[in-house]
Amino acid sequence: MNKHLEKLLYFIVGISIGFIAWGHTLFLTIFAILIIFAYFFIEKRSNFFALVFGYYLASSRGLFWGTITYYNITTAGGVYLVAALLSSLAWIIFWGKTQKTKIVSFLAAQAILILPPIGLISWVNPILTAGLITPKAGSMGGVVGEIVGFGLFFILIYLMIFGLNVVKKQFYTQKTTMYIMMNCVLLLGIAYGSSTKINSNSANSEILAINSNENYETGTVSPIVDFQRQMKYLEQIENSKNALCLLPENALGYVTPANDLVWQNTNKTIFAGASFNNVDKSYSNTLTIISHGEIRPIYKQRVPVPLSMWKPWSNTGVKADIWGKGGFVHDGYEYGVLICYEQLIMLPWIQTMSQNPDVILAISNLWWAKDTNILKIQEQNIQLLASLFDKTYVFAYNL
């Protein structure tokens, strides 16, 4: 086969995997695991690059349409392509030529995909399928739980890969095909059972998540609109039976003394997204707690959206706190927090889950990403990692 046609076919297969796996149902996420299998079986580095580049382009397709909200089509296309390109290169910087060396190179690739700088822009890591394949494997919590959770997943997948190699060497092609089919049926069966259980059991029922569809347009609104929006939230909260409630990112807008007037008479405890101006021209994107009429920040976003929110070259925009705390303690409960973009990348998750939270609080404001797959990917990530570490979660968003 012509080598260029061969790479094109790998590219198309990668696009198919990425499109199917991300942005739809939780069950379909299982198809992302094919990238891991491909890593160990594709012999040519360039062929695997074509595959994984197609995978990232298709799975993170919402990035392009969302970025256009802030920038022109050229800049949006550049951001989209560079993010996919760097994520793809991370897989092939270290490339083992044998199965044994590929174990080491695979782990090295994961480190690159998780840690800064590439880890701050790389979405849809296939290792997230661990939440379907080995649910509750990290239930002991903390760093040990993370090592065991992902470790058991890697061991199981590698045993399947090793078994397939043995079958290829020792038996006829017909038996190899049967082995592959058996593995596929097994993985699909596990994934279906896990996704059904996750959908029914993982959401925390004690905390009420209130979603909204406010139109922020340029990303900012007037104090009057902030006030009116909060009054709507207050009415919903007071009409609910829950003592604890979660509001989306930016629900309170920029906190001012006027906010206290809205919430001073409620007896409920509310977690809500809000912004606070800093001494310089920057601001902090936070989760606040409203208790006894008092509003105070309890978590600062660690990784805001690069370029559009977080501008490292300037003292404007959202201040990043990459190595900050992954949550807070309230009334004896450890809460893990992830704000919007943090739900898409691995580093904030690893930091948060290392603290072994009792509940995951996730908030988003995706006014800029309507009609894209970003909200669904956030939800998939939350569900998958909550499943892997056996945690309940609450997710409130504005779309």
Q: What's the short story on this structure?
A:
By secondary structure, the protein is of the alpha/beta class. It contains 13 helices and ten strands.
How would you sum up this structure, described in words?
There is one protein chain. With 399 residues, the protein is an alpha/beta fold. The chain folds into 2 domains: 3-201, no CATH class; 207-398, Carbon-nitrogen hydrolase (Nitrilase/N-carbamoyl-D-aminoacid amidohydrolase, 4-Layer Sandwich). It is built from 13 helices and 10 strands. Strands 1, 2, 3, 4, 5 and 6 form a 6-stranded mixed β-sheet that branches. β3 (269-277) and β4 form a beta hairpin. The chain starts with a helix and ends with a strand. The mean pLDDT is 89.
Annotation keywords:
alpha/beta; globular; 49% helix; 10 strands; four-stranded mixed beta sheet; Nitrilase/N-carbamoyl-D-aminoacid amidohydrolase; 13 helices; 399 residues; single chain; six-stranded mixed beta sheet; 2 domains
Strand content: 5-15%
* Ends distance: 47 Å
* Radius of gyration, in angstroms, nearest whole number: 22 Å
Strand tally is 10
Q: What number of structural domains do the residues give? A: 2
Q: Output the helix-strand order.
A: HHHHHHHHHEHEHEEEEEEHEHE
Which regions have little confidence, pLDDT < 50, spanning 5+ residues? none
